[in-house]
Design goal:
Layout: E1 2-12, E2 17-23, E3 27-29, E4 32-34, H1 41-53, E5 59-72, E6 78-92, E7 108-112, H2 113-119, H3 123-131, H4 133-140, E8 143-150, H5 153-165, E9 171-184, E10 187-201, H6 205-215, E11 224-227, H7 233-242
Amino acid sequence: MIETHSAGGIVLNPFGETIVVSQKGLSWSLPKGHIDEGEDRLHAAYREIKEETGIRQLHLIQPCLSYTRFKISLTGDDDTSEKKHLHFFVFLTNEFTLKPEDKDNPEAKWVHYSEVEQILTHQKDSDFFKRHIPIIQSYLDECIEITTSLAKKNEAESIATSLVEKKLVACAQIHENVTSVYKWNNNIEKEKEFKLHLKTTRKHYKAIHQIISDTHSYDCPEFVVVNLSSYNNDYEKWIQQTLI
């Protein structure tokens, strides 16, 4: 029996989705691959994720997590001729387009983290992912502020009220008389706008993004997301408890 070491990642996007890849069209796993000679685990993970998904921009949010299992055979059973030591990191990316470069693993897709456990072929892969769901949930529970700009006050008030009523946003603040200077269709524009600041958590970002995109009067709405760091823990708890 041979023993090999592979590295890869749980790659998370702001919508709470994770990448799974098809291994030679026979099984589904998290993106990973063999560590080359002289290569450390983290750099191997970056390289393998790029090759199997095309994703290049990765932000590390959790250091190495490891487990061991046998190779998956062509029938989906354990191939005991190879024991695999698997090393995974948790990454965040703002890239969404998947373009696998590895011809042996040509398919990759985004799946909501709550569904990944059922998709992974090997039981130990599923068990590993399930054990680390709390890491993902903790990240998605973090408080953030989303900012967008609107042309009219009534539009800002309408979106703010709708999001608060739906319990997607704990607090919406409208700042008036904001002067924006920007380039549009090769012209320098100067407009009075209304800034809408939304206090929420990461797990609600997708729903908020969809609602604003569907109702916003601009062709290209602003979406700026920042971590909401507060020295008042009670304020952050209030945001989390106010939302659905």
